[in-house]
């Protein structure tokens, strides 16, 4: 009798657990409206303050109450930053500054403000011509470095940008332009790069060398920055400034840096060379190319 009673109790417990699990599994995923952990009132407000003693430089300060992470966009794509960011806007124009605040449970909010820069910084002006690729005149400022014998790899221009396409198999191609620089002056190079899909055995390299490019010859004079799947970037989709998403080391510094200087005053060649073995089907797109005095 004792054994039968224990069996009955066991069957009843099993039946009860099965019924509960069956009931809960049939509930829709949105049956719980809010788990109480997500902050739905994140405050993304921020201030913009000119930095004293610096030309066209501004401090962005997000309010910190309830904010766990800040994403900023100053016109060149969103990036993860600090609650306080110092930005430089060397060219005259109107800039829409956007801040996305992330709070508890992944709750988000976005705020934006405009900054009007009335005068360009004479020391940090962009030396690159046609770096926006916005018009046919801009695009004509760039020369093609033919490195793909069959023309399999090529650059195209559209939507204020340039895109390198390659079928893979190590096909590559370059673009470049000549720029005048001053001896021992430090410069920074940057550009916006993007691709919705990743690659394998692929490179996107930026050079600033004294030697003139030659058709059919890989350019290797003074590599400054870039993307490289061997070094760990461009394996998946990406979007942002090359100084942020890039991982290629600077030949001069031996570190990931976009700063460069030259031993002589005169002409250098800003050159982008890209290709690979398993190249992204979407190509790598570049825009907003800059070379500025630091």
TrEMBL record:
Concerning Gene3D superfamilies, the annotation shows: Immunoglobulins
Q: Which UniProt keywords apply?
A: Signal
Question: According to the UniProt entry, where is the signal peptide?
Answer: 1-22
Query: Is Signal among this UniProt entry's keywords?
Result: yes
Name the InterPro entries on file: Ig-like_fold, PKD_dom_sf
Q: What is this protein called?
A: PKD domain-containing protein
Look up and give the organism this protein is from. Answer: Flavobacterium fluviale
